[in-house]
Amino acid sequence: MLWLIGLFLVVALAGGGLAVHEMRGRELPLPVGLLHGIAATIAITLLVVHDVNAPHDALVNSATAVFVLAAFGGLLLLLFRIQREPLAGFVVALHAGFAVIAIVLLTLGYLAA
């Protein structure tokens, strides 16, 4: 579980870097954002596999649900990018907020175990 938390932290830090870069007006190539999304999708999938094997871990299960909400925000941001529209700051903040909350829940679940 600890390595999974580390993976989510790396993905979140990369996402933060992407957001800062984008908010400064420097649009990144689409593949860079896609790498962030693919890494997050892999991490969420691994977390779901963990949840199936440990279904009674409420904090970790909650973290998974919140990560899925963050993923939906990421998909919305991807749609903005595909349409070549500027990213909505509110959606970026919501996406990041969900991710941070999920990482906190995941860490608390790990520490409680």
Description of the structure:
- The chain has 113 residues and is mainly alpha-helical.
- It has one domain.
- It has 4 helices and no strands.
- It has helices at 2-23, 30-53, 58-82, 89-112.
- Helix 1 runs antiparallel to helix 4 (89-112) and helix 3 (58-82) packs antiparallel against helix 4 (89-112).
- The protein is elongated and about 45 Å long.
- The termini are close together.
- The mean pLDDT is 91.
Work out the radius of gyration: 14 Å
Q: How many beta-strand segments?
A: 0
Q: Name the beta content range.
A: under 5%
* Count of structural domains: 1
- Termini separation (Å)? 10 Å
Low-confidence stretches: none
Based on CA inertia axes, which overall geometry fits? elongated
Explain the layout of strands and helices:
Blueprint: H1 2-23, H2 30-53, H3 58-82, H4 89-112
